[in-house]
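User: Predict the complex.
Assistant: Input components as received:
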Amino acid sequence: MVGVEASEERVQQVRDQLGLNDPLPVQYARFAVRAVRLDFGDSFWQKTPTLPLVLDRLPATFRLTAAAFLLAAPLGILLGAAAALRPHTFLDRIINILSLGGVSMVDFWMALMLILVFAVQFGWFKTSGYGGFAYMALPALTLCYSPLGRISQITRSAMLDEMNQPHITVARAKGLAERRIVFVHALKNAAIPVVTISGDMLSSMLNGAILVETVFAWPGIGLLTLQALQRRDLPLVEATVFVVACMVIIVNLLVDLSYVYLNPRIRFQ
Amino acid sequence: MALRKVVFRTAVPLAALLLLLLAAGCVAPAAAPADTGDGDMMETTSELVVAVAQEMTSLEAPLAAAETNCNGCLNVVETLVTRNFSTGEIIPLLATEWERIDDSTIQFQLRQGVTFHDGSPLNAEAVATSINYMFEAELVSDLRGFIGGELSAEAVDEYSVNVTAENPDPILLEKMYFVAITSAQQINEEPDTYANKLVGTGPYMLDEWNRGESIIYVVNPDWWGHDNPDEAGGRVSFDRLVWRFLPEDTVRAAAAQAGEVDIAQFVTPDQCNAATGDDGLRCASVASVETMFARMGNQKLFEDLRVRKALNLAIDKELIVETLLGGAATITGQIVNATATGHNADLAPYPYDPDMARALLEEAAADGVDVGQEFTLASRQGLHAGHVEVIEAIGGMLNEVGFNAQVSVMPPDTFNPQFSHNWADLEGQPNWVAVHLHGNEILDLWFSYVNYFTCGGVVSLYCNAEVDALWEEARNMSGEARDMKLQEAAQVAYDDYAYGLIAHLDLAYLISEDLNWNVKLDHRLQAKEMSPK
Amino acid sequence: MTAQTKLTLQDEAERTRHASRWLIPRALLRDPVTFIALAIFTLILFAAVAAELIAPHDPLDQNLRMRNMPPFSPAAEENAPRHLLGTDPLGRDMLSRIIFGARVSLTVGLSSALVSGIIGSLLGMIAGYYRGPVDDIIMRLVDIQMSIPVILLALLVLFSLGPGFWNLVVVLAIVRWMAYARLARGQTLAYRNSPFIDAAIAIGSTNTRIIFRHIIPNVSSPLVILGTLEVATLILSEAGLSFLGFGIQPPEPSWGLMIAGGRQYIATAWWIVAFPGLAIFLTTLSLNLLAASLRAISDPVQRERWLNKGSSPADN
């Protein structure tokens, strides 16, 4: 196995080659110059340029987060709206506990339990690995629970505020169908906080992805990041952080753009 | 009020649509890779799926020296010679015969009619290029660690090649077992692909390496061994090999239980015991060359022999093996197991005697040794399945007799530089004791000595002129005389309590009941030695 | 927002502060869910503080012959208490480890929430109070740091600092300050131009005095609620980082580490993973419930609803 026999000399030699023995400001300047050119250098570990390595993993992470988000956002909004329509009822209580459970859940613990029950015990899904629905179900389920909880909570409180607004009373007075009132008038106006939190949740899924991908051996950016950190592969770590940060920024941009659509006041300014 | 109706009338269709969307989103783009890792496909396309603990870092040929550094690579590349583990003999593979030319050179006669996967022929020139490239190209590899120096090769005629070691070397032949031969055409024409494309002569060819996920090999229809199963050491029974990287121990075992993989590499004794009997699995827990031992890297404390002895007496090795390791280990008093040259049958494991350990520490303390000083009891993450508990248990046992150990389990790349020191470089280092696994794959104590027991050994914390002299004598000997001389040196180091010695480990696998496979001492996953039942 | 509404806001805040002396305990005790959450959290807090007094065994005391014993197993020694929650793979008492683990988790959660709360709130208030370039700089910093996922950032910092208890606290404080900064800035902005601040400026109060005398009391209640939520998040983050091997180091009894270490026994000895998971879940759930109740109490409209259940305006 990998012994400690890799000699100290060897380590020093490699450090010299990579310039890791230079003063930190020098290293940082070098990094900054390279980063501007999108060149993070070769991975110590895989010995190939890092950016393609990271981009290779992007589709896997994208698919997982997309599936989890497609579960979390609509379901969260639906549950939140349902709770808001019947506040302080049994339904509201149940939804509240469910969504608080999501926020309080230890995701890697949940992942292990899901594997044990649904993959080993029932054999419905695969324990781990990359592939279609059978492989994706458990990681997506794990990843979506906490955002689902948060989104449903925010939707509930935004909807509650909205349902007490005068324009809803007016709409009711006009005799509009309740379905139209709820889903057009109230939900659209409650959408801004919901969209904001959904954007935040999408970025926070990248957090969860590190743990979930590790447990399920899902070959995405999260797993790559962890491996890079464990191997102290600095160029690869830099590249993953760069790519992840870009993804978050794009999500934030989309959220900001959606405000323009959702809030006419911003559009007219 | 119609509200409830509204919610439910909308909720139900929406939920259905959602599930549909999800199913479509998951299945559609994944149609192609979805059929890769299915264990239940085995019957139809004869596929072997193995779950391994660690992904390789590159496909450079020197990494093939160890299974854990290059997963399944020995199905692609072959070596000049191999080892028969039932007799311990070195037997032909790519070389058919050999002759020792002088102290440091062996001439090999190559097997004829063998071609690499790229179509180029295996001849003396190719072998020489392949071997020389590994050492010339300054590849950062563990091969040097296995070999303990450089090799060079030279073609004599079409099928004769001379391999030469730097220094006189009686175990050069044994070392050739680690030197994988790859295509010279690749090295000459496209050296850039060396790290990513493994081109050998073996029964399987590299198909695809999906980083972070799996590596796939397909059968080589032109393998020389198809007609020659006896000399090739086995036959091909699978069309495809899939090695999946599942770093979580729990998940690897679960994948085997769910029937997704045929072999789960390195599971814990508890997982082994839990899985046997059900699920059509068996557990193979097989002795390995790995020895767990502790290096005492704190000269102020451990330069005192009494303290070193106390450390050894404080560890209840038998209890650890019996409970934590589930009996899948053998306690030991030396760094190599009984299969190795230089193993001394008279050296019993140090006994467990906490009272004496306490007394020794008190004695040392009375002489001014600060035995209560804190030290880090460190090990590397992923050392072997379940080792964290062993380290914690050892920490508890040491503190019981009056040591002050703080357990720390570190990532490999934090651990290695911090603990890779020679005794002479310890000045100014923090106090530590590091628990390592040492694998003596060459089955010769020399290999352990060069690193751990000589004054100049790269990671040696032991320096004794007497042992150095014995080892110098042994180095050029062979056969019985070498064995006796190495045993003599081992005895001196044993009496000096040079290291904390714990146990030779077994490594365990969960294996599908449908698969025939006898795990050998080197724990290499060679598909030619496996077959479906 | 008109000056009128700001004035009422200020009045309302004052009223809340006086009223809350008796309202908060009363409201908390009236609601059964909140009461249970409060009871659970108090219990866990008590366990953390008085771990030495209530733990039946030494959490570090190993006994390999007693490993993986199921709940309610008798102890090895004659008169020792039973292992109510079983033992772990090294034969240590699970209950005692969970009790001592509460100390680790809560210390990490509370101290990093406190540190990040103080840093973030102050920066946010400064940004909101002074506006201009200070505001820009601070808020751009927030934006930049927001673009890196928390766990990733924490891993990065731990990667350079090395794992360890206090490093973990520092790291979690560093990575979680932005939420407070945003909230504090928003709240401060709302008060910045109100007449009572103008009045304070007119009578010659220094900026520092205004921030500490007038702004902090008025913006503190949403920040406290956020802090409560953050403690829960931080406990989860600690568990995640320990699970990945970058957080608390063995043999320290941390809940996250107990799950990480016990995960290979999940099929054979469920209690090793189930109880620490449950401990984390109950702690974070009770904190989340408390935060929800606190929010309801601090909001006058919701408070009315809370105290007079059944006549909620939303139910009409």
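Chain C is about 75% helix and 0% strand.
Let me know if you want any component modeled separately.
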